[in-house]
């Protein structure tokens, strides 16, 4: 309810102060006798006094407006819901509703796994290609473009399938066990190929074994990967293999 009150015209009581003689100028002139008016009460206190006087005189507000009168005058009001109310909870629930079926969710999850696997498939397939090229160059072999294209066309889907399933079951204890075992086998096999096998066997098996070894190291947890590397290193030194070219 809006209230307008009449404010009395009484002036506040003022006190006069005369400047002291200490304010004389340098030439000995007498200070000005002009008085300074200082109010004796704060405006808030005077407002309370005026309100008390108006109440004693029996004067009510000049205009008394009700809520209906304000609405009739065209004043609009906006309702604000309190924090933590049921209305807010209902709105949040509507926003979080998902109309997709289980089949659509499964399809979306499969595509997410597919694209996550592609992020690893591309670099690891190029890793295989690089190892294939370096292995041939190390034995002074210079195959043509179709040789590399044929090997890459076989390696790309193979690497993609391996990465897809190792990414899906990355937290599985079975994968941790078999992944560690595969990493140890591939690592020891690659070291044996470099030290003991003929160049034809190295050309055929080296790039694939090296790619699979690095892939398992990347996909395994850090503790399992360190365990596999420790076993491979211990085996290499125990067999007298050359680990560093």
TrEMBL record:
The annotated region (Disordered) lies at: 1-36, 82-105
Superkingdom: Eukaryota
List the biased-composition ranges (Acidic residues). Answer: 85-101
Annotated DUF7719 domain ranges read 180-242
> Is Transmembrane one of the keywords UniProt gives this record?
yes
Keyword Ribosomal protein attached: no
Name the keywords, alphabetized: Membrane, Transmembrane, Transmembrane helix
A Pfam match is DUF7719
Membrane-spanning residues: 118-139, 145-166, 173-192, 212-237
Protein name (database record): DUF7719 domain-containing protein
Source organism: Vanrija pseudolonga
């Amino acid at each position: 309810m809006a209230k307008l009150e009449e404010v009395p015209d009484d002036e506040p009581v003022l006190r006069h102060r005369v400047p002291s003689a200490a304010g004389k100028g340098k030439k000995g002139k007498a200070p000005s006798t002009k008085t300074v008016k200082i109010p004796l009460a704060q405006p808030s206190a005077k407002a309370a006094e005026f309100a008390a006087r108006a109440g004693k005189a029996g004067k009510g507000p000049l205009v008394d407006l009700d809520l209906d009168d304000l609405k009739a005058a065209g004043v609009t009001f906006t309702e604000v819901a309190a924090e933590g109310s049921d209305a807010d909870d209902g709105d949040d629930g509507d926003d979080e509703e998902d109309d997709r079926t289980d089949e659509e969710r499964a399809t979306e999850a499969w595509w997410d796994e597919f694209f996550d696997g592609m992020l690893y498939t591309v670099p690891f397939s190029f890793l295989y290609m690089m190892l294939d090229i370096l292995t041939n160059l190390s034995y002074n072999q210079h195959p043509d473009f179709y040789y590399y294209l044929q090997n890459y066309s076989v390696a790309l889907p193979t690497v993609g399938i391996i990465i897809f399933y190792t990414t899906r079951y990355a937290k599985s204890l079975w994968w941790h066990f078999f992944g560690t075992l595969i990493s140890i086998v591939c690592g020891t096999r690659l070291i044996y190929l470099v030290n003991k096998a003929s160049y034809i066997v190295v050309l055929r098996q080296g790039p694939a074994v090296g790619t699979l070894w690095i892939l398992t190291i990347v996909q395994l947890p850090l503790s399992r990967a360190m365990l596999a590397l420790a076993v491979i290193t211990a085996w290499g030194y125990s067999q007298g293999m050359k680990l560093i070219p």
